[in-house]
Design goal:
This protein has a single domain, classed as TIM Barrel. Helix content is 35%, strand content 17%. It has 14 helices and 16 strands. The strands form 5 sheets. The chain has an 8-stranded parallel beta barrel, surrounded by 5 helices. The radius of gyration is 20 Å and the shape is globular.
Length: 368
């Protein structure tokens, strides 16, 4: 790919966000009712290509169960308030009332309470007892400490999620997590990320992960770009990692690793564009945090917002637009792509003549 000269000593290639691209209609159209949005990872099949981001403003055990019953996958944040407190509801309500000046300091204080292994077990049991697929997420820093607790609790899918996750973390302070060894020893499929480049994705795929999360510095509640200067536009990142999936299939003799776009997906059109760029599914936060029944109460934040040393996220007031069911399936009362996400995806696929997500990955896109 042609590089652009930034200055005489530095060159860089042009990368594109979802806002920079558009899907091109084809010669054929379909009825939206004939479209399937189902996908499968490992032994688990889902009717919706939607994973809920493991964030306290997005997922509680109750909302994870509801999303699972609708056909998606709710991923619980196993380092959040639900695993630190018996009843975190009053604290969630307090966070939604904090003024901007006090928010970060108070959230750091609230999240300083230690994680309790027995609460991890209890929260995952609640989801399992409801009969839906059970998924929980830990950061790479906490994975070794709590992995056995999570697996013993009966998790179906283990998510290792950070701002960025590498297969080759180097540390002089502590023994790093050996992803390949860790995943090999587990009896459950692992989704790991984020990553944003072809090379990093191939290395993560070689660890044996069932899926990789694509995203770095994006998301409505992140300020990683402003604080660290690190970010990669998502359309290019997803397309690069989709190419890594193809190359790894050749290298491994046909092993398919799922690509999950995670970041900068705020509206229904972004979901369609992510799949058009090669994603198998998307992990979303802010669209689901807008649900009236979301635990954030109209606010949205991630773990970065209360980091003890270097917060690089915000508690964002995003408001509410409807119930979780309405956000997923409509009817929509707005024309901005924040409601009826699945209906919009179906119509996008039908308008371009595709009935399966795998086929839709091949749709033509243009740079606007």
């Amino acid at each position: 790919m042609t590089e652009i000269e930034i200055g005489r000593a530095k060159r860089g290639r042009r990368a594109y966000s979802f806002d920079d691209i558009a899907i091109v209609p084809s010669r054929r159209t379909r009825d939206p009712e004939e479209v399937s949005t189902a996908w499968q990872i490992d032994a688990y099949r889902f009717d919706l290509p939607i994973l809920a981001a493991p964030m306290d403003s997005v997922m509680s055990p109750a909302s994870a169960i509801a999303l699972g019953q609708y056909g998606g996958l709710g991923v619980l944040n196993l380092e959040g308030l639900w695993t630190r407190y018996e009843d975190p509801v009053p604290l969630l309500e307090e966070i939604s009332t904090l003024d901007e000046v006090a928010a970060v300091e108070r959230m750091q204080e609230v999240y300083s309470t230690p994680i309790q292994a027995e609460l991890i077990t209890e929260r995952l049991r609640q989801v399992r007892d409801a009969g839906v697929t059970v998924a929980g997420a830990l950061s790479p820093q906490r994975t070794k400490e709590f992995a056995k607790t999570v697996v013993d609790a009966g998790v179906d899918m283990f998510v290792i999620r950070g701002t960025t996750v590498s297969a080759e973390h180097v540390s002089g302070q502590a023994e790093p997590l050996n992803l390949k060894e860790f995943i090999y020893e587990l009896d459950v499929p692992v989704i790991v990320g984020g990553c944003a480049t072809h090379q990093a994705a191939v290395h993560l795929m070689r660890t044996g992960a069932a899926g990789v999360l694509v995203g770095f510095g994006g998301g409505a509640a992140h300020t990683t770009r402003a604080v660290l200067g690190v970010s990669v536009p998502m359309a290019s990142a997803v397309a690069d990692v989709a190419a890594a999936r193809r190359d790894y299939m050749d290298e491994s003799g046909g092993r398919y690793v799922h690509v999950i776009a995670d970041g900068s997906i705020g509206r229904s059109g972004d979901i369609a564009k992510a799949i058009a760029c090669g994603a198998d599914a998307v992990m979303i936060g802010s669209p689901l945090a807008r649900a009236t029944d979301a635990p954030g109460g109209g606010f949205h934040w991630g773990a970065e917002a209360h980091h003890e040393n270097l917060p690089r996220g915000e508690r964002v007031a995003i408001g509410t637009v409807g119930t979780l069911e309405e956000i997923l399936f409509g009817p929509s009362r707005v024309a901005d792509g924040t409601m009826n996400l699945i209906g919009a995806l179906r119509r996008s696929m039908a308008t371009t003549g595709y009935t399966e997500l795998k086929e839709f990955q091949r749709i033509e896109v243009v740079v606007q």
